[in-house]
Design a protein that fits this description.
The protein is of the alpha+beta class and 408 residues long. Helices cover 58% and strands 12% of the residues. Among the domains are: 53 residues, no CATH class; 110 residues, Immunoglobulin-like. Strands 2, 3, 5, 6, 7 and 9 form a 6-stranded antiparallel β-sheet that branches. A 3-stranded mixed β-sheet has the order 4-1-8. Helix 1 packs antiparallel against helix 4 and helix 8 runs antiparallel to helix 9. The longest helix is centred in the N-terminal third of the chain and has 34 residues. It is rod-shaped and about 165 Å long. It starts with a helix and ends with a strand.
Amino acid sequence: MTLFWLSTLILVIVASLFIAIPMSQRTNNNDQPLRDELNKAFYKDRLAELEAETQEGLVGDPQALITELKQSLLDDVPSRSELTRESMSAKGAIFVLAMLLMITLSYGLYAEYGSYSQVKHWQQVSASLPELSKKLMIPSPHGVELTDQEMQDLTLSLRTRLHYQANDVTGWLLLGRIGMANRDMQTAIGASKKAYELAPKDGDVQFGYAQALILSNDEWEQNQARTLLLKLAQADDVDLRVFSLLAFDAFENSDYTKAIAYWQQMQQMIGPNDTRYDMLTRSIESAQRNLSANRSPALSVKVTVRLADTVIVPKDGVLIVSIHSADGAPIPVAAARYPLSQFPVTVLLDNSNSMLQGRDLSQLERLIVRARLDNDGNVATREGDWFGESTIVEIGDPVDITIDTQYH
């Protein structure tokens, strides 16, 4: 508010100059000459009367009366200093009254018809930006829920800040989160995209952008989000939220097998002592129930993949699990790829993972399962990849594979 009051003070000073300058200039006063002319006319008339009375013998000492008349005329003429003082006093009073009237009317009309309350609220909201940002950054239930009014205030404050600091990555990221909280996907995606353009290599920014895109109704934007998330899932230090969002996306798209795999990876990352472990177990059980409702358990293959001690996990790569007919044919009947995480890992394959048109996984009675650590994402190249293979098993039986061999 300091700038507001400073601006109004400057305007008051300028307005006072428009009042003071004209009043300080000398103006011709016509009252005094008129008064002098009247006094002279009265003096001449009185002299004429005295002369007539003297001739008639009515006045004994005419000279004394003339002297008295002259003295009364001089007494009726005020001094210049008195006139100046009176004029300055009058002008000062008028100036003070004019200034008081101008200030009262200006501030009174602004308070009544202006936007003072809105400006004051805007200034208060801008000052509370750090406090509101901290509340938003701390997720529930550990943090404090923001009310609808606080969300509106935070949005206003952020938009004001971003208007003057368009390169503030954190500000754009926060605005995107607010948009998601308010289900305003246009704001969420637009703000998150701006943050991503400013810092495309920042992990938090990538996740925030992916989180906004995954909630979009546009399929292309959803695929873009999955690409970002899979890239983040291959990092050395994977954020738990990445697998959580991947699991959510898989579950929402009825890909319960992948959702279970992601949640199991999250359990391996946090350990059974974490309070979230049981929640993930319930999510896995829910996905398994949905999976069982969609198909017979005998038509799926549960595969647990382990790594030998000699295996070197590639930095950028994927896990490919494929199911082949019992004769060992190289072309898989079903296959799926998963991001690399901690091992052992358990996955489920069913008819949704079938690769051959007209031939489903459920049509096999006996099968072989192969698992491979692909280091470049290209299934056509094998050099340097690690792999393992199961024995021939019956469909529906659990499969345990150890990856221990490297292609040369």
